[in-house]
Design brief:
Layout (H helix, E strand, L loop, with lengths): L6 H8 L7 E3 L22 E3 L20 E3 L20 E3 L26 E3 L20 E3 L20 E3 L37 E2 L12
Parallel strand pairs: 1-2, 2-3, 3-4, 4-5, 5-6, 6-7
Antiparallel strand pairs: 7-8
């Protein structure tokens, strides 16, 4: 289905059916979205897929959809994300791989926001241009899956290891030379993720599995 930003398309976004829960424009040729996506806060829409288009900008008004659980913007050309994206309090799955992102807004512009992305379980930022990862990633307390493969990362902040529910961390095809894992002598007294068991594929780092259901590697004598 074709899509452009003529006035009729503005009307489409502002007049979505009141009970619409899933909206997909995946694999089209959308190059631009209206700046004002919703005329008022929309809590019914739970899943938006804009995957596989030609977007370079995601308008800040995406946060008008306060009921969103899943947002898929992967396979576009997006360079940055709205600073207040974490105000989507019900967002559990954010897929933003295969874009041109150089940073990620872990916190909002509101300084009072102490627990951004409080409901987010899955964050996929594969195939972007991230050169560093903010220590604010440690604020994403519900995160279970974090994928950062094929970026330009040279290190991971130690805050990653304090994510209490993290199960899968992917950092393949980066420039990471060492992992900053907190030691017993670390002055930071926060508990390290309790499910941390063992590391597989130290270099190149393919996948780090943090799940206590996986047995530790056998000891050798």
């Amino acid at each position: 289905m074709g899509f452009n930003t003529q006035s009729s398309d503005n009307d489409f976004w502002k007049n979505l059916p009141a009970k619409l829960q899933v909206l997909s424009f995946a694999n089209n040729k959308i190059s631009e979205l209206p700046e004002d996506l919703a005329k008022e806060s929309n809590t019914a829409l739970q899943n938006i897929s804009l995957r596989g288009n030609q977007l370079s900008v995601l308008p800040p008004s995406i946060t008008s959809f306060q009921g969103l659980n899943v947002l898929d913007i992967s396979y576009n050309f997006i360079k940055s994300l709205p600073q207040d994206l974490s105000s989507l309090a019900h967002l559990t799955d954010l897929q933003a791989s295969q874009n041109n992102l150089e940073s990620f807004p872990f916190t909002t512009s509101a300084s009072s926001e102490s627990n951004p992305f409080a409901s987010l379980h899955r964050l996929d930022l594969d195939h972007n241009f991230l050169a560093s990862l903010s220590p604010d990633v440690g604020l994403m307390s519900s995160l279970t899956y974090l994928s950062l493969s094929r970026n330009h990362l040279k290190e991971l902040p130690k805050e990653v290891w304090y994510l209490p529910h993290l199960e899968v961390l992917k950092v393949a095809k980066n420039q990471v030379e060492a992992l900053c894992i907190p030691s017993a002598d670390d002055n930071d007294k926060r508990p390290v993720a309790p499910s941390l068991v063992h590391l597989r594929y130290i270099w190149p780092i393919h996948i780090l599995i943090l799940n206590h259901s996986i047995p530790p590697p056998p000891t050798t004598t």
